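pasting for the record
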Amino acid sequence: MTEQIKKNTEGLDAAAVIRYITQNFGREAVFSTSFGIEDQVITHLLEEAGAEIDIFTLETGRLFPETYKVWNRTLEKYGLPIKAYYPDTGAVEKMVSEKGPSSFYNSVEDRKECCFIRKIEPLKRAIQGYKVWITGIRADQSANREDMTRVEWDEANRIVKIHPLFYWTLADVEDFLKQNHIPYNSLHDKGFPSIGCQPCTRAIQPGEDFRAGRWWWEDKSKKECGLHRTTN
């Protein structure tokens, strides 16, 4: 199925890819949003296409106040239901009770444990039963993602992933936001190109790598939480 979707969407722009998914998969497709600028573009395109595609977000419990604000603004503007998936309460209680609320700073292993509990496990619940997972990933967001393709098979999650904005540049995204008056997270105007959990995200300086603000205390080669590690 992955190769057929690749063939059928080759040469299509992002809006056409969304229409293709809508027409061919409908409720068998799901979109994950973290309310970053790319995800806001996808939400706009879904509304524009009249897509009846489920949307979800991962509510880790450690989000920025600004993220909640844009979440509300998105609901107000588009009226599309967005389902929130929370981490397992027992797992969070155990981790925090045993290691404290900031264990992710201790080691890569502890940080990955936190990411697994707050993001990976809820994600697996969120995409269960769907055939297609839509994301806002762009190719130039990190070295690891340059090895990805617009349509790919996610072996770990047994689902086809489609990235409609894969070939867009940051300038493309910013221009589209302005032209269509799309609400976005105000942190993007304060040097935050990538926005995740508040304790693990900082602004970057001019010239720094796009992902430099995520888990900045770690070696840059380890800067993925595991949501988008894909095997074709």
